[in-house]
């Protein structure tokens, strides 16, 4: 419970404190003010009840009609406050959600947590981060607003209602118990508290498992959604291998997991409802029955009885907030735990324990690099083939060769500063590095975004984009530059994607290039043309190229063989 409340407070701090915090706090104050106005109207309604029913009892038409006007005024005021309150609440929801999302994105992207916290790479891997950032941030703020405003207004309301109930229930309940006369003064006040305390305890006992069930439900829903997204991402492979049935089974399994938990969830909600639903229905009537002894003893008038019932049910309804909102409370607890996990883990992405993490990283001067005594490990602790020592001068071209699975991609990850598992020393330049993977990303925004990644396409003039597209051999895609959205990149072949990635190098002109089978989908002539472009545009760049065939067009190059052959060979042009 402590960790949970600690987590909730940490999340509140992230959303509500910091620069421009006053805007959110001012909006929150307005929301509260309007809620208090609503409470004031409710208090007036209790007094109104007495006056109105007394007027009815005495057949006083003029007084009853006057009370109708009072009623209309109170309702108008209440409706205005509720409407404006909702509007301010929605603005505040957006304001705080934006801040929380911003903090989550900063941590998620900031220390490359999205890379380190993948399953298998970290002991605290984050499942479905997309759901946490997109949905949990929104849900947390939504529930926080509902719950916190309700708690505060209910406390204020409770004080007002109890004061009223105290004033009007100045009579005692008298009865005989085991021959002794018992008198309980102001019994209606004590009864309200006992009635609700007992009911709250029952609710909590019945609803306790809900939090865990809601938590699991959110995770399973996200897993199902992720499986659907994977079908979209791998549509061609699935369609070509007629994988529909396998996909269907995979989806069915995920949905079954949803159904299974859902059944438990609705079962538990049903059990909780067995108590809360009748309670909800009776809470406005039962107080009347409790007050009947006083009425029959003629301690109160009919109007007084109605006022008493109204004040009692206001006290009981306010005290019952916990009962009525048990489901929301379970949800906020689950959402807060998921979100706090995300923040705690991303603030300090932890690698797996027990695997050497002793790579000494230094900054080399210029665009040269060196590797000394490097040995890399997989996350499950398996040592990869030793990496031969090498010293690369600025402007050199290196072909990294080695059999499949020997650790070439892992080596590039280590060189770019990501791979944490290993020992030895790496000297790399501090800046000017650009790495291209085998499967480059294209973006569903525009072709320009793919060419300029990671820069902003608006920083590159269109004439330059056109020129570069022509140079990388994609004149047939020029008209796509004018398109927006997924249409702009729809159907691009892997070779075309790789050409777009090479275009990135021409745009950014890095001084140090890592190519991880970045031209594997191209024919030898096309590869040679693109490498010739690199030599022309980046004559001084150091290029490390992982490939299964020698990159002849990069000659002269040296070969850095990982695995059984440990010699470093020199090949002349
Ligand atoms: N996240 C990981 N978890 C477990 N094992 C991993 C992980 N990443 C890499 N490995 C293992 O490390 C080894 C080296 O993988 P790597 O991708 O670096 O090889 P590679 O030489 O680039 O292979 P290829 O030429 O086939 O692309 C492989 O056995 C791989 O299964």
UniProtKB/TrEMBL annotation:
Its main location: membrane. Residues 369-573 form the ABC transporter domain. It holds the Pfam family ABC_membrane_2. GO terms for molecular function: ABC-type transporter activity; ATP binding; ATP hydrolysis activity. Residues 29-331 form the ABC transmembrane type-1 domain. It is found in: Cell membrane. Gene3D superfamilies: ABC transporter type 1, transmembrane domain, P-loop containing nucleotide triphosphate hydrolases. It comes from Pukyongiella litopenaei. The chain crosses the membrane at residues 21-41, 61-84, 140-167, 187-207, 302-324. InterPro entries: AAA+_ATPase (IPR003593), ABC1_TM_dom (IPR011527), ABC1_TM_sf (IPR036640), ABC_transporter-like_ATP-bd (IPR003439), ABC_transporter_sub-D (IPR050835), P-loop_NTPase (IPR027417). It is a multi-pass membrane protein. Keywords: ATP-binding, Membrane, Nucleotide-binding, Transmembrane, Transmembrane helix, Transport. This is ABC transporter ATP-binding protein/permease. One of its GO terms (cellular component) is plasma membrane.
């Amino acid at each position: 419970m402590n960790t949970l409340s600690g987590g909730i407070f940490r999340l509140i701090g992230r959303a509500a404190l910091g620069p421009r915090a006053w805007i959110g706090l001012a909006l929150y104050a307005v929301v509260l003010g309007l809620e208090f106005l609503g409470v004031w109207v409710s208090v007036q309604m209790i007094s109104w009840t007495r006056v109105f029913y007394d007027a009815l009892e005495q057949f006083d038409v003029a007084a009853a009609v006057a009370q109708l006007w009072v009623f209309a005024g109170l309702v108008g005021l209440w409706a205005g406050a509720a409407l404006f309150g909702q509007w301010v609440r929605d603005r505040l929801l957006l304001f705080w959600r934006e801040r929380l999302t911003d903090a989550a994105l900063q941590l998620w992207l900031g220390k490359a947590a999205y890379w380190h916290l993948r399953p298998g790479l970290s002991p605290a891997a984050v499942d479905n981060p997309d759901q946490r950032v997109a949905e949990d941030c929104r849900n947390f703020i939504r529930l926080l607003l509902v719950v916190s405003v309700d708690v505060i207004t209910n406390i204020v309301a409770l004080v007002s209602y109890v004061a009223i109930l105290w004033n009007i229930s100045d009579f005692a309940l008298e009865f005989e118990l085991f021959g002794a006369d018992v008198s309980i003064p102001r019994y209606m006040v004590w009864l309200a508290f006992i009635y609700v305390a007992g009911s709250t305890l029952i609710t909590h006992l019945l609803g306790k498992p809900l939090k865990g069930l809601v938590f699991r439900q959110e995770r399973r829903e996200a897993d199902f959604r992720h499986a659907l997204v994977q079908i979209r991402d791998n549509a061609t492979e699935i369609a070509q291998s007629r994988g529909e049935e396998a996909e269907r089974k995979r989806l069915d399994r995920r949905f079954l997991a949803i159904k299974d938990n859902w059944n438990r969830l609705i079962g538990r909600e049903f059990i909780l409802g067995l108590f809360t639903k009748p309670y909800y229905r009776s809470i406005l009537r039962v107080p009347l029955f409790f007050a009947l002894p006083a009425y029959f003893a003629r301690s109160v008038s009919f109007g007084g009885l109605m006022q008493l019932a109204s004040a009692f049910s206001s006290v009981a309804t306010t005290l019952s907030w916990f009962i009525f909102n048990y489901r929301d409370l379970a949800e906020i607890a689950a959402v807060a735990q998921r979100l706090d996990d995300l923040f705690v883990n991303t603030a300090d992405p932890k690698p797996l324990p027990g695997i050497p993490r002793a790579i000494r990283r230094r900054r080399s001067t210029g665009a040269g690099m060196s590797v000394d005594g490097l040995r890399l490990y997989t996350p499950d602790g398996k040592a990869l083939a030793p990496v031969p020592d090498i010293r690369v001068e600025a402007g050199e071209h290196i072909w990294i060769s080695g059999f499949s699975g020997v650790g070439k991609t892992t080596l590039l990850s280590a060189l770019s500063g990501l791979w944490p598992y290993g020992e030895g020393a790496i000297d790399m330049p501090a800046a000017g590095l650009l790495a291209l993977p085998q499967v480059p990303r294209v973006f569903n925004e525009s072709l320009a975004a793919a060419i300029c990644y990671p820069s902003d396409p608006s920083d590159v003039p269109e004439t330059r984009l056109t020129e570069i597209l022509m140079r990388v051999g994609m004149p047939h895609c020029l008209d796509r530059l004018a398109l927006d959205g997924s249409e702009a990149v729809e159907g691009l072949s892997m070779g075309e994607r790789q050409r777009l990635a090479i275009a990135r190098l021409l745009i950014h002109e890095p001084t140090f290039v890592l190519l991880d089978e970045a031209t594997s989908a191209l024919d030898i002539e096309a590869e040679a043309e693109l490498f010739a472009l690199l030599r022309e545009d980046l004559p001084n760049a150091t290029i490390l190229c992982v490939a299964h065939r020698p990159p002849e067009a990069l000659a002269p190059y040296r070969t850095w063989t990982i695995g059984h052959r440990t010699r470093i060979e020199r090949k002349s042009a």
